[in-house]
Amino acid sequence: MALGIQLKDVTKKIGGSTIIDQLSLDIHKGEVFGLLGPNGAGKTTTIRMIVGLMAITSGDILIDGISISKERSATAHKLGAIVENPDFYLYMSGLDNLRYFAKLQDKKISRKTIDDVVRVVGLTESIQKKVKTYSLGMKQRLGLAQSLLHRPKVLILDEPTNGLDPAGIREFREYIRRLASEQNMTIIISSHLLSEIELMCDRVAIIQNGRLIRTETIKERPDKENFEKPASQVVIELADSKNAEQLLHQKLPSLETRRSGEQLYIQADKEMTAKVIQLLATESHAIYRVRDGQQTLEDRFLEITNEKGEAYADAHSQ
């Protein structure tokens, strides 16, 4: 699978402190990739190095196969970014703002390109209105349009949904997913909203104390060959979980189970879950409740970044 961005042993030192410590990541084209970590973990520093706002102490970053250390100007053309809240001329229309920013680009940007970008972010009906009439969500989408004017291969977003209401966050999430799938764009998002990252991203990297703790797959890419939805943990609450587990071991010996009080935990996809429930009901087991038992990204993040996570990072720094 083609790579959009590679970080190779990237290190950033300021004074006597190591802010980023030999960070390596491979991020694929068409992938929405999340950067997670506690405050001060190094997420924003990493983003600033990728977009060229901060120098790398050692290591390298490749954008679409090109080194930012050796060919900064070439990689700059491949990048789009929203690192701070976008600023616009409020007395001008959204279209006039985009025309102004288009003129600042090194290459000529056609009206058709501007119209295409406006359509992609869903601002066609509002683009002639003055920006001072825009909601915060519309301004965020206009900022996204600005970052897409030069047709970048990679899009970097630092806390892109700050200040948005739930409807605005959902809209923004849908635009990001569409960009990745339709434009085969590599998108990196740093956010503290873990529930949104879980809905938006294909994979995440968890960073702590400037070091990579873990990368996790959130959802399988739809273009992955031989795609099969993996089994997930399901919790079944029963009147007699012990006998229910014994029954499942007899009838479905390959099924993974564990028991805790009245709760029976199984590893099963939707089809197997339905089969288990039907079997238990047929044998007259009283089922009180069935629920998804998967840990949320927030649960795993808090677990990983506690003292165990710090110990993991320390062990891998030696």
UniProtKB/TrEMBL annotation:
It comes from Sediminibacillus dalangtanensis. Pfam families: ABC_tran. PROSITE patterns: ABC_TRANSPORTER_1 (PS00211), ABC_TRANSPORTER_2 (PS50893). Coiled coil: none annotated. It comes from the Bacteria. Belongs to the ABC transporter superfamily. Residues 5-234 form the ABC transporter domain. Keywords: ATP-binding, Nucleotide-binding, Transport. The keyword DNA repair does not apply. GO terms for molecular function: ATP binding. InterPro entries: AAA+_ATPase, ABC_transporter-like_ATP-bd, ABC_transporter-like_CS, P-loop_NTPase. This is ATP-binding cassette domain-containing protein. Gene3D superfamilies: P-loop containing nucleotide triphosphate hydrolases. The keyword Nucleotide-binding applies.
